Automatic annotation (TrEMBL):
L-glutamate binds at residue 41. Pathway: Amino-acid biosynthesis; L-serine biosynthesis; L-serine from 3-phospho-D-glycerate: step 2/3; Cofactor biosynthesis; pyridoxine 5'-phosphate biosynthesis; pyridoxine 5'-phosphate from D-erythrose 4-phosphate: step 3/5. The keyword Magnesium does not apply. It comes from Arenibacter certesii. Keywords: Amino-acid biosynthesis, Aminotransferase, Cytoplasm, Pyridoxal phosphate, Pyridoxine biosynthesis, Serine biosynthesis, Transferase. The keyword Plastid does not apply. Pyridoxal 5'-phosphate binds at residues 76-77, 100, 148, 167, 190, 232-233. GO terms for molecular function: O-phospho-L-serine:2-oxoglutarate aminotransferase activity; pyridoxal phosphate binding. This is Phosphoserine aminotransferase. The gene is serC. Catalyzes the reversible conversion of 3-phosphohydroxypyruvate to phosphoserine and of 3-hydroxy-2-oxo-4-phosphonooxybutanoate to phosphohydroxythreonine. Binds 1 pyridoxal phosphate per subunit. Residues 5-340 form the Aminotransferase class V domain. InterPro entries: Aminotrans_V_dom (IPR000192), Aminotrans_V_PyrdxlP_BS (IPR020578), Pser_aminoTfrase (IPR022278), PyrdxlP-dep_Trfase (IPR015424), PyrdxlP-dep_Trfase_major (IPR015421), PyrdxlP-dep_Trfase_small (IPR015422).
Amino acid sequence: MKKHNFSAGPCILPQEVMKKASEAVLDFNGLGLSLIEISHRSKDFVAVMDKARSLSLELLDLQDKGYQALFLQGGASMEFLMVAYNLLEKKAGYLNTGTWADKAIKEARIFGEVVEVGSSKDKNYNYIPKGYSVPTDLDYLHLTSNNTIFGTQIKDFPKTTTPLVCDMSSDIFSRQLDFSQFDLIYAGAQKNMGPAGTTLVVIKEDILGKVSRTIPSMLNYKVHIEKESMFNTPAVFPVYVSMLTLEWLKNLGGIAAIEEVNEKKARLLYSEIDLNPLFRGYAQKEDRSIMNATFTLTEEKLKGVFDEMCKEAGINGIHGHRSIGGYRASMYNALSLDSVGTLVDVMSELERKG
Ligand code: PMP
């Protein structure tokens, strides 16, 4: 039976990417060798890294604009500290929109003063703070564009001359934005890109070199840029799969094309959540994420029946994060409209059964 994979991450990837990736594990480029048993310095793999980096910039429309793309290790969590290590001299601003933003704040405090310019902690992060002011003396302002756990997403980014750093782990490549408003973007691969194990970091080069501390090589963005993301052995398989996914997205028509599908999926699910009296959305409507929809049952006693119906329909991975409970349906790029339709059918069937 077809599985409908709503997992929050690691998550669904395009089938054709999986197929090509599995073939490359057995025989890469007809070399008679596996992708994962050749040198990362071989010309075949260097071409993969180059392509993954250039496709990232191309899809974000950041080519020839002073940006560099890197594929690093340590997950998005490593970027929580690398950002501060490389950019925080005195004071940084953070918008606290959830668990991940909070973790980023905790790491940054090791390196300097951190001001929370806004926080939605008062309502267990079910909204995006608005109307906050950005102090003029910040080294950077850090935002989390999509809050994977709570299902909120920033729709309007602050207009400021302060350098903007954005954790886009769970919505990169999913919607059109003017990406040049950001000075640094990072995203763990395991949502819209590839398997866990690599993190895309896109940096405007001229923001680097401004802190006075000595930065260890592995944590130094400049070193990674100089070495073209090959300072040490990169995560060859995750980078390869990311490259394949970026190619898939480009062939589909890029971010503009996938955004249309993503909006359709989100509209379909949210309208069921709003119309079906058995369900209630968690996030405030105007801040709803098009990637992660969070909702609860209005009658807890139906949980067993609903869970069983989902299981029978092949629906996987919709249990909410332990910090908010309920349900979370993640609708990343590779999830089809048909899968969302299946979930919506089950939800309306539950209503009919009453
Ligand atoms: N930021 C966001 C928005 C996330 O969703 C996650 C993981 N789900 C992280 C950071 C942490 O990522 P990692 O596990 O790659 O360190």
